[in-house]
Design goal:
With 439 residues, the protein is α/β, with parallel strands linked by helices. The chain folds into three domains: 5-136 and 304-337, NAD(P)-binding Rossmann-like Domain (Rossmann fold, 3-Layer(aba) Sandwich); 139-300, Dihydrodipicolinate Reductase, domain 2, CATH 3.30.360.10; 348-437, ACT domain (Alpha-Beta Plaits), CATH 3.30.70. It has 14 helices and 17 strands. Strands 7, 8, 9, 10, 11, 12, 13, 14, 15, 16 and 17 form an eleven-stranded mixed β-sheet that branches. Strands 3-2-1-4-5-6 form a six-stranded parallel β-sheet, sandwiched between helices. The longest helix has 21 residues, at 304-324. The termini are far apart.
């Protein structure tokens, strides 16, 4: 049997604890599948006294992360610190020292991945990051390896369990956003500061990575359109259901005309769309390829053990490479580095789709014709108009569904309508993804 593969773990928080637990408690299973022992030589963390419920051998725990990445015996560094500060510094130093790296750090890769992968390529080491997107769902491996013979056409998914739980709660119980968020926090599904999740940034980090993998392009987080769920109300969820839709925070990526479409926003999808039935904290993603059609992956996108499972799969991939004496067997961004393209991400103003509008309008003659006139002037054709619900503060909700329209025209029209004296509150806009809508 080969000598053990030596592993150093940076970060002993929730996921780091799960990784250590699997490496120690499932060591026999992993060894049988790999062919050699995976030895957890070091765990570095600022808090080493806390009991994590795992039996750790003496000498494994340390507060000195630099000792870990500088150890010449170490083969693989597992970064579970998170964030973009010390995690980035330690990762780059580990790469400089010739260590292969496993990470779940989607924010770091979304914003600095191009730099990190370039450095890794120069040092002939691998960066494995399955756990950065979708927790235990093997979406990175699926896009990068299983679908290698396909031209990827689109990637669409629910990639944030916190948002999905909140929207499910609003849908099922009629809760207001603030109450659903408080419930998610009470159950441990949302952070004390939930901004990263509910405003869509966490989902955008993941979509930036998937878009790059899908279309053979450099990672481009900065140009992704991002809109969160904090303005979604039970009223809009109720109206959506009456039209046969559910509202989900979707990550949507498409490749068309030499451009990548990449956007995060609340989206109406029909009941018969399989993603509309993914509820609670589950994640799911569909990938469309020219050879396979559409495939679906679903699973827990966060949590100690689901995420740790994905980290272990990366460690094992790297261990097998080390045993074979190779690196770079699977390109880090799916394509060989000299084939990774600088593709533009389409501005959201160029988006053409269907829309749901809700206006709070005064209940008086001529209001509907005023609103419709502005929409028509901006080349927005209405599919249906509904006056819904009872009068509140002198206004009634007016709901309109459009035929396909251009986002730039929609924003121009809504800005003009918002300035009308007969319209109270800010108009609500929700985009619709429905293949059955036609034009």
């Amino acid at each position: 049997m080969m000598k053990p593969i030596q592993i150093g773990l940076l970060g002993f928080g929730t996921v780091g604890t799960g990784v250590a637990k699997l490496l120690i408690e499932n060591s026999d299973v992993i060894q049988a599948r790999v062919g050699t022992r995976l030895r957890l030589k070091y765990i570095a963390d600022i808090e080493v006294e806390k009991d994590r419920g795992i039996s750790i051998d003496p000498g494994v725990l340390t507060t000195d992360a630099s000792m870990v990445i500088n150890d010449p015996e170490l083969d693989i560094v597992v970064e579970m610190i998170g964030g973009e500060g010390i995690a980035k510094d330690l990762m780059l130093k580990a790469i400089e020292n010739g260590k292969h790296v496993v990470t779940a750090n989607k924010a770091l890769l979304a914003k600095h991945g191009n730099e990190i992968f370039k450095k890794a390529g120069e040092k002939s080491v691998d960066i494995a990051y399955e756990a950065s997107v979708g927790g235990c769902m093997p979406i990175i491996k699926t896009v990068r390896e299983s679908l290698v013979g396909n031209r990827i056409q689109s990637i669409t998914g629910i990639l944030n369990g916190t948002c999905n739980y909140i929207l499910s709660k609003i849908s099922d119980d009629g809760s207001m956003f603030e109450d659903a968020l408080a419930d998610a926090q009470a159950n441990g599904y949302a952070e004390a500061d939930p901004t990263l999740d509910v405003e869509g940034y966490d989902t955008a980090h993941k979509l930036a990575i998937l878009t790059a993998l899908g279309y053979g392009m450099a990672i481009n987080y900065d140009d992704i359109y991002i809109e969160g769920i904090s303005k979604i109300t039970p009223l809009d969820i109720e109206f959506a259901a009456q039209f046969g839709y559910r509202i989900k925070l979707l990550a949507i990526s498409k490749f068309k005309g030499g451009k990548a479409e990449a956007r995060i926003h609340p989206t109406m999808i029909p009941f018969d769309n399989i993603l509309s039935n993914v509820n609670g904290t589950l994640n799911a993603v569909t990938v469309a390829g020219d050879a396979v059609g559409e495939i679906l992956l679903s699973g827990h996108g966060a949590g100690m053990m689901p995420t740790a499972s994905a980290v272990i799969s990366d460690i094992v991939d790297l261990a097998r490479n080390l045993m074979a004496g190779i690196s770079g067997r699977v390109p880090m961004l799916g394509c060989q580095m000299d084939h990774v393209k600088q593709l533009p991400v389409m501005p959201v103003e160029e988006l053409s789709t269907h829309y749901y509008f809700r206006f709070s309008a005064l209940d008086k003659p001529g209001v509907l014709s005023n609103i419709s006139g502005i929409l028509g002037k901006c080349d927005i054709s209405l599919k249906s108009v509904h006056q819904k619900g009872r009068k509140t503060n002198g206004t009634v909700p007016v709901v309109m569904m459009t035929h396909r329209a251009l986002e730039a025209d929609v924003k121009k029209a809504l800005k003009e309508i918002e300035s009308l004296d007969v319209v109270g509150e800010k108009p609500v806009l929700i985009r619709i993804e429905d293949q059955n809508q036609g034009e």
